[in-house]
Amino acid sequence: MFTEAIEKILTDLCTPAQVRAVENGDCASALWRELEDGGFLELLTPEVADGAGLSLAAVFPIFLAFGRHALPLPVAQSIAARALMRDCPHAPPTGMLSLAGTAYREADGRLCAPRMAYGALADFALVNLGGELLLLDCSQAQRVRSGVHGSQCATLYWPQDAEGISLGSNGSEVRLFSAAIHAAAIAGAMEKALDMTLEYCNDRVQFGKAIGKFQAVQHQLSVMAEQVAASRIAAELAFASNATVPDALATAIAKARTSMAVPQVTATAHALFGAIGVTEELDLQLFTRRLQEWRVSEGSETHWNGLVGQALLAQPQVGASEFVRNVIPSQPA
């Protein structure tokens, strides 16, 4: 029910033209207000707190849809932030919340949140500072954009005397949730890129037939589809737990596998589109640019593969197949 409702809103309001407008500095207040007023920011909030009380598994298709529509707003991060603040006495602030999975103090005392997703737009940030969970007002921070065309990612610097609210010691959950969200967004955006590529290959005629009929093109499409399918399965794994926060090992596998697929999927899509594949007018770049950015957000495949490898080596008596099968323990019926 929620997925269908959000899909309709995104189809109507999150058009490629709207995404480009936001990237060029226009506000997206109508889209944000539609999602906020519809109560969609409270999907993971318990019912006793007037939320929808959805499970992680139920919210996964929604996060997938955000990636598939290149949603240029921190909606998934705001949903997760409210879940992370579940045990806090402070109510979530009004406005756009984003997540900073890793923050640190610089030598001069400033607090730095590097490459924060939607840092250029966020009103508030839920920050992991060495395990401490902090809520910070982004209006007090200096924002330094990434410099990538159209990106809403930014590094934020808060002064030493910035007034943040300490919410607890579950700061490490911020990075887990943020990484899982990025894995879902990658899977969704790659599905869209595959759909666009398939449609183009079926429509583009060369030498008297659609290029999708050529065996060499079919081979590339097959490999691309395999990468997309594997990424979706891995991303879904991160949300398969009954817990309130994605499982650490499942998230590591999800982020590693989806990030690993990005170079091949994006390169294949652009290659099959040919000369128009590099143009700004083609909607494909709205997704492939984000895929490259999300690939390294909260750590690339190198970081997360290292964590998976350490977990496997910590169980020398367990084979790789058994290790993967038991990433998420069986839940009681």
TrEMBL record:
GO terms for molecular function: acyl-CoA dehydrogenase activity; flavin adenine dinucleotide binding. Residues 181-301 form the Acyl-CoA dehydrogenase/oxidase C-terminal domain. Keywords: FAD, Flavoprotein, Oxidoreductase. It holds the Pfam family Acyl-CoA_dh_1. Its cofactor is FAD. Belongs to the acyl-CoA dehydrogenase family. This is Acyl-CoA dehydrogenase, C-terminal domain. The lineage of its organism: Bacteria, Pseudomonadati, Pseudomonadota, Gammaproteobacteria, Pseudomonadales.
